[in-house]
User: What shape does this take?
Amino acid sequence: MTGIELRNVSRWYGNVVAINDITMSIGQGVTGLLGPNGAGKSTLLHLIAGFLEPSRGELAVGGAPSWRNPEIYRVLGLVPERDSVYAFLTGEEFVRATARLHRLADPDGAARRAIGIVEMAGAQDRKISTYSKGMRQRIKVAAALVHDPQVILLDEPFNGMDPRQRLHMMDLLEHLGDEGRTILFSSHILEEVERLSGTIQVIVAGRLAASGDFRAIRRLMTSRPHVFLVRTSDDRVLGAALIGRPSVTGVEVTGRGLQVRAADYGAFSRELAALTREHGIRLRELLPEDESLESVFAYLVES
Amino acid sequence: MFGVQSRVIASITLRATMGRKRVFLFAIPPLILVLVTVALKLAHPPAPAWPSHILGDFGFSVVLPLTALIIGTSVLGAEIDDGSVVHLLATPVRRTTVIVTKFVVAAVLTMIFVAVPELLAGLIATGGATRLAVGLFVGALAGSVIYNAIFVMISVVTTRAIAVGLLYLLVWEAVLGNFVSGARVLSVEQYSLGVANSIARNADLNAHLSLTTAIAMGAVVTALTLAFAVRRLGAFSLKGDAV
Assistant: This one.
């Protein structure tokens, strides 16, 4: 048993349900926990990490329950979302202190190894208070890795990172997953999860909305019809032209402009440009009407 | 119990506590105590009982509890407030080890910041290692232990530890402990004074408990509050998302 198992786990606060009857099984490799803000991703990670008691259901990490059981941290590592670390310590002191809290036989060696993995050796003797957001994130990962855990939880590990740091963190997680560890990270950004591929668990409003291979879920997401609002110098002429195109499945003239439903996102955007040029129409505004992550997730929940 | 984990926790706690500006806050009450004692000594007040009033009343009902409040609520409370405690709790360290280590650090710091100045002031006021000076020192040591168990517990239970601790001191210790004779058996100030008086044997100390009662009750209160703190830390929860 080296993974994470949840059976009918719910968590509520008073009469607000934060996690609603989630059953999932997470094994080796990288798994993304995807969902809009406030969907319950953090709550779910806190439950798995033993920092929240399930209101109902069973939960195990490496075969043992995590609530009131610090012993699971022999096989588990946690990278919390909050940026609060012992900022007065140097990176190396922080990771070595963590190694000693784990009572590792060789804390110095373990710290050196973990810092090497996150490539922070160059900055390890600086105080954490001088670190950038990305460096703090990496030193937190080093501390979570220091005891060579089988399971690692990361809460929004890419938040506040610049693109280069993001790529580096993604490579790191990929590498850890390839080593046969169980890596579960949360994110509200589709592209982050896509880049790391593997399996995903989609959480919407406290419920498990989709689960499985990312590509299958991504296909669901891109094949859904897209709705755009187009405002031009002559809505009706453009509307008539658009409806003749196979990429468009519906056009409606509204007070705010043309509402266009497109089946093929890519073809529609190319054809729109060509049609406006052809008819001498000036394009004033093009707004995606349902591109918010929430609507993408809502679509997933329905399908 | 005091293995490598305790040493790590203690050293991080010391660096966090002493590194903040708060350390000056710890030093103010004992500094006032010593300065007032020196001033009174130089002024030769007419009342011969002034050392027991200043060092017993002011020392044990203001300086000791307030300093213990600031120290006891910050050794663990500061980490809980800023969230860094997660890094400590996300390790297999037993919660008992965390609480006991934090408590020992707080008690020792309070001894340094209160019991030692109390001894110093006693030596100055009474002109040497008198029974009163030694008694106040030992009483302050006992008080440092019991108060910090309570304040560490409060800091685990509530995020408003300073306010709750002050309320406890003002309502329970200052009013009930002094005016309701039955409540004296539940007053940390009285435990401390009881211990002090067993050596000092000074009627002006306002001590009402025997040494046995003071020590037994002090030990019970310390053990119970620490056990409760361990229980509550074991159920330490993080807030999720927007809920």
Observations:
- Chain B touches chain A through 32 residues (CB under 8 Å).
- Chain B has a mean pLDDT of 92.
- The two ends of chain B are 38 Å apart (CA to CA).
